[in-house]
Amino acid sequence: MKHMKKKIVEAAAIAKEGHIPSAFSVLDILWVLYDRILKINPKDPKREDRDIFILSKGHASLGLYAVLAEKGFFDNKHLEKFGHYEGFLGGHPDRNKIPGVEASTGSLGHGFPMAVGVALGMKIKKRGNRTFVIIGDGEANEGTIWESAMIAAHHNLSNLTCIVDHNHSTDRALDVGSLIDKFKSFGWATHTMDGHDQEEIYKVLTVKSDKPKAIIADTIKGKGVKMMENNPAWHHKSPTEEEFKEILGELL
Amino acid sequence: MSMRKQFVETIESILPKDERLVLVLGDIGVFGFRKAFAAYPDRVYNIGILEQSTIGMSAGLAMTGLIPVVHTIAPFLVERSYEQLKLDFGYQKLGGNFVSVGGSYDYAALGCTHHCPSDVGILKNIPGMEIILPGTAEEFDSLFRQAYASGGPTYFRLSERENPVSYEVKFGKANVIKRGKLATVVAVSTTLKPVMEAVMDLDVTVIYYTTVAPFDTQTLRENCPSGKVLLCEPYYTGALAADIMGALKPKPISLDFVGVPNEFLDKYGKAEEHDKYVGLTKKNIKDKLEKLIYA
What we know:
The structure holds 2 protein chains of 2 kinds. Chain A is 37% helix and 12% strand. Chain A is α/β, with parallel strands linked by helices. In chain A, strands 1-2-3-5-4 form a 5-stranded parallel beta sheet, sandwiched between helices. In chain A, strand 4 (189-194), helix 7 (198-205) and strand 5 (213-218) form a beta-alpha-beta unit. By secondary structure, chain B is of the alpha/beta class.
């Protein structure tokens, strides 16, 4: 994990761009998904029988890129061109450029409805592919999240799992209350987990469900770097040279 | 037959032939499509009144190889869900069909909340969006069959009113209806009816457009000897102005417009009364054309 975190900080430092704390918030979850849960082949990422993952909170893209590179979807060297004019790894993921990326997200509240559509599509086609999506608690301000939560429950999309990266980034704007109660009242099976405990993540992700499944992950924005943890100043900031050294010192 | 009834018949005819087709209704047309609901419950959905998620969800359907056909009233389909059309379909390069009713002020008596004269102008700002405005039910059937599986996002604007005659229309291609020397009238969709009434004794060319994006520049370039163009559009006026100038450049041209002015049409009544107010009439078209020719 530290190795991937280092790559993320380096990429953001070179590009002077990127949402590092959001990437660290979801990194453990992404790793468990790609390492142990998703049926997907990095050498054949468009295979028909693959599971689908959508990062609806697209600004955590650096986390996804680090994991995709680590799993061999593309070479690690591309991370050095993150956010560059000629690079293909942008501030938000692009399905038409990056192997392994299923949806071009970034505008919040778009990836989740698409994931609902993919899950419904798989059901229509009577295919066994599962769909996983990560949204943020800030993203859960968007009306489309709750519109689509109703659609998923109404059509009983038991092939869909939504993980909420609940790092409390919305607390300063809007109190979203209990996300568990909300999803439950919308007709979903609900679970909670420590979003940084990989064994627990694996356990909760493998619980069988006959309804669409929402997992509220308790996470820390900027997890693992003291100066970033829950510090809003770091939401969209690249480190200075001094900060860069300090962060690496803490990670290694 | 109305365009709406034709839409039902066309979909009912394609559903058994093309397993990729999925119909998604925004809680309208449910009674009309009752046979389709009964015959194909796994591919016909009344998804509810949540247009943004409906478009996003339909992009997800498209990702699995299905071809969604989303249907609701124009302002909710286009304006409310604009970012979903732009990003989820346009930017992602996914195929889907968006069939609206209530274009411009077809629902005149319902007031401005249900008007949508902006549809063509704003959709033209989405790269790759195909925009089709049939002038009759028969033309809808033909254009839908030609374009629904194009692989890109396609907008079909149904109208409550129709032209008296159907033409053999091709997706992406305009039809030359009449040839003359003194001016060229670009008639979009249902404006062809008042245009043909207005040009009866005038020596002008009439080009009929049912696809406005992509715009058929070639037909216009080959049929505008005068350099004088009257653009007749049933929505906010001028959406095709840049296409027309681009098609005819570097030739200097005189361009005038008949269409819906950029204002809230806050009266009720019937669509024909709004036509009269905005000047989508035989008389106004003829007056403008004569001024363009003889001024």
